[in-house]
Design goal:
InterPro entries: DUF4031. Strands 1, 2, 3, 4, 5 and 6 form a six-stranded mixed sheet that branches. This protein is an alpha+beta fold. It is about 35% helix and about 25% strand. It has one domain.
């Protein structure tokens, strides 16, 4: 097995977690969005909003943090979310995955 394949396999394993009977794929980007005196990141699913809500609920992320296609999560929650199975990716990778999933709500559609 090449180094690249092992890395891909590791990333896939980290991206999967179970909540009850359901396997999930969730992604989180770097905290870079300032608001309320802290930095915030985005938490998304590349499968469904149902699994995103289930992951967030299982990890004590309040529903009020949901914004149409993602959760806004504070920087200090990132290690806990990754430990729970979220995959840390760049903001660019997160956006591409969200668009590819068909779950992305464009800025102009947020009005």
């Amino acid at each position: 097995m090449s180094g690249g394949s092992a890395k891909s396999g590791d990333a896939a394993r980290r991206a999967r977690m179970s909540v009850g009977w359901m396997a999930m794929t969730v992604l989180v980007d770097q905290a870079m969005w300032p608001a309320h005196g802290r930095l915030w990141a985005h938490l998304v699913s590349d499968e469904s909003l149902a699994e995103l809500h289930a992951f967030a609920a299982a990890n004590d992320i309040p529903r009020r943090a949901f914004d149409r296609d993602h959760y806004d999560v504070p920087e200090d929650a990132l290690p806990r979310l990754v430990a729970a199975g979220a995959t840390a990716v760049s903001a660019h990778e997160l956006t591409r995955a969200l668009i590819a999933s068909g779950l992305r709500v464009r800025a102009r559609d947020r009005r």
